[in-house]
User: Fold this.
Amino acid sequence: MTGANATVSDLLHMHSTPARALAGLYAVTCVLLAAYNVDRVESVWPMAVAVLVCVAAAFVLVRVEGDPLPLRPALALMCTGAVSCGALFSVVPPGPTEQPVQLWTFGMSAAILVFMCVRGRMLLAWIGLILMLLTAAVWGATEGPGAAYALGVSVINAGPVLMGTVFAYTIRPLARSIYVLREQSTRRVARESATAALLEERDAQLDRLDALARPMLALLASGEPLGDEDRTKCALLEARLRDMLRAPALQDPAIVEAAQAARLRGVEVVMLDDKGMDDAPASVRHRVHRAVVDCLDAVWTGSATVRVLPPGRTALVTVLLRDDAEVRRIELDREGRPVSLGALVSTGGTSTTRS
Assistant:
């Protein structure tokens, strides 16, 4: 999630596997509380309804995406307290409860309302709390404990909802800022890494240039006359340096060796890189390098031009081989495999195509 679209739900990982596991733990807690109080109620099925309502609400919170929580799920969650408490009150014996845990739906419903606040539905959470308090008051007034007693044991759940509201009003506006700062930090680290990699590559290039060119430069600086062998070495060095600049994708050791051997045989070798192989997988690169080496090893006279084509072309690499008798064009497809093409044969100033 990017900083521009980040929400507090993402910050708290409310849609993650641990969040679902926590919802599962909440469900187990509801079942255990219901089972603990099953012998204190007149009927079991309303208790089961209360459990199902609370459990369904918990999983809606961690599975439904969107910020704030979409309105329809939020309206359903708003009724969690009233429905679950109403189901429980219908089977609780009249009069004051023996133990506070008998009214377990208060606390479990309050937890749902707290997370409704976190999901951006503070108003609906408070309406849900009011509905739950009204349900408790009606139960107290009609079943004997009295409305004041019922409100006294239920109003304490306003505390967690209040804390959830304060949390929402303080943390939610900061969620985007937190993600923006994280993105900026990530971009800064990426820039620093790219700069370090660039400097490292520059140093490596300088080391290679130093190893290749320093002996010849020292010879030239000495003022001694150059022999034929020295001139050949100069020409090969110039060609090697040119290849390094113009065809970085073809600087495989095997290709470098094959190109130098071809030049020693008198073949003019030109290599060009138009960046079409920059994103190619290692397997494709390996096939291309092997095919180029085979082509360079096969030519003994004339010239060889190896070109990595620009991105988006049907072919990936073309190899043009010229000698006194014919001109051959070899294409390597996007997988690095040779494509069978005809050969242009020149004889006495005329050209024919031979398969």
About this structure: DSSP finds twelve helices and seven strands in the chain. Residues 8-184 form one domain. The CA atoms of residues 116 and 125 lie 6 Å apart.
